Amino acid sequence: MSTLGYILLFTLIGSIGALIGGLILLSYEKFVLKISHFLASFAAGILLGTAFFDLLPEAVGEGGEKGIDVFPWVLFGIVLFFLVERFIHWFHHHEEFHKDEKESKSTLPLIIFGDTMHNFIDGVVIAATFIASVPLGIATAISVFAHEVPQEIGDFGLMLHKGLKPKGIILVNFLSAAFAFIGAVITYLLGNFLEPHIPALLAVTAGFFIYIASSDLIPEIHNEKRKGFAFIESTLLVIGVIVMAVSVSLLERVTRVF
What we know:
single chain; mainly alpha
């Protein structure tokens, strides 16, 4: 099989992970809607765990090899998302939404954009590693598949919590997953140009995830007044962080085999 064939096949395998966890959730839609605020807390932990245990270490490691200081790019991602959110809030200010619904809707584009950016980078990383070595590319694709499952469980639950319908979530996820293929093909065609910028892209995406968790999801936990609910939500956030920490640790061990 050609290198491009490997890249496309294993990008597909990695992308399937983005659907499995979410489809499991949507199979129990009514129940999931009842606990969507808990899933939003879990999603906050997943986003923070992905940023600090997966994206940032990878960005720092690769950035050190290329002489790139990635932390300004993390800050750039946070500030960029802040500006995008301010624009969205300004746009919705002129529409007749109830305040809670307006805030809920305005967050969805941020979630979708962050997830799409992450999928694009996954495609870039898979292609870049296959160009270097087929075994390394296979290990990377397996890693992408495995970490996408818990992350997308969080994202699907979060989208439901923010009011997106199941059919819309599936459509958005397919379109978002397509960017993994776009990233993979662009890297294959322009690998020498795009590959040096991977650390910056990883850092910006980490900034996106940190911003979403910190500015939108964590304040919801703080605002929860019902007895016991805030404790459960806080616990789920911590569990989300631990899930990603354990997942990344296990996947690093598997990758070392290759």
